[in-house]
Design goal:
The chain is an alpha/beta fold. The protein has five helices and six strands, in the order βαβαββββααα.
Length: 167
C-alpha cells in the first residue's frame, strides 16, 4: 500500500465535527486498506451531510425516500479503479455520512460518535473495495472485518451485534 489520500468535506451544520474526527476517518481508511492488502496509492472522498441531504441522495441514487446513515459510491469494478491523472492514485470512490444520523445511532447503541463514524467509514470503505452484504455469509465476513478494524483503532464494540439489525 502506497500513499492514501482521504479528502474530507463538511456540507452540514447540524452537528459540530469534534476535534480528531477527521484524523480518525483517515486512520480508519488506512486500516481497511492495510487489512485488505490494497496495492498502490488510493484516493477516497468522505463528505459529511445532514439527514435531509442524505435522504435526497438515497432517493436519487437508490430510489429509497428515507434517511440512512451512510452511502458508498464506488468507482471501481472487479478490482479496477479510475486513476487520478495528476497523482496516479486509484480513485476508490465517495463515502457520504449523515453526521446527524450517526449521532442518533451513537446514542441508541450507547457508544461515542467517534466509534459510530469510524464504523460507518470502515463499512463504506469495504463497500468501495467490492464487499456487499446481501447474503448472510458476506454480511458476517464484512461485520467481522469492521469489528477487527474498530478494535485496532481502540474503538471496540460495547455490546454484541445482531445479524440483520439496522445495518
Amino acid at each position: 500500500m502506497d500513499k492514501i489520500r482521504v479528502i474530507i468535506t463538511n456540507k452540514q451544520k447540524a452537528v459540530k465535527i469534534p476535534t480528531g474526527l477527521r484524523m480518525l476517518i483517515r486512520r480508519c481508511c488506512n486500516a481497511v486498506l492495510r487489512l485488505e492488502e490494497f496495492k498502490g496509492s488510493a484516493e477516497i472522498s468522505v463528505t459529511f451531510v445532514d439527514n435531509e441531504q442524505i435522504r435526497k441522495y438515497n432517493k436519487q441514487y437508490r430510489d429509497k425516500d428515507s434517511v440512512t446513515d451512510v452511502l458508498s459510491f464506488g468507482m471501481g469494478e472487479n478490482g479496477k479503479y479510475d486513476i487520478d491523472q495528476e497523482t496516479g492514485a486509484q480513485i476508490l470512490g465517495d463515502v457520504v455520512i449523515s453526521v446527524e444520523k450517526a449521532m442518533e445511532q451513537a446514542q441508541r447503541f450507547d457508544h461515542s460518535l467517534q466509534r459510530e463514524v469510524g464504523y460507518l467509514t470502515a463499512h463504506s470503505v469495504l463497500h468501495l473495495l467490492g464487499y456487499d452484504h446481501e447474503n448472510n455469509m458476506e454480511r458476517i465476513r464484512m461485520r467481522e472485518k469492521e469489528e477487527l478494524i474498530m478494535d485496532q483503532l481502540g474503538l471496540p464494540s460495547s455490546s454484541s451485534y445482531v445479524i440483520g439489525a439496522d445495518r
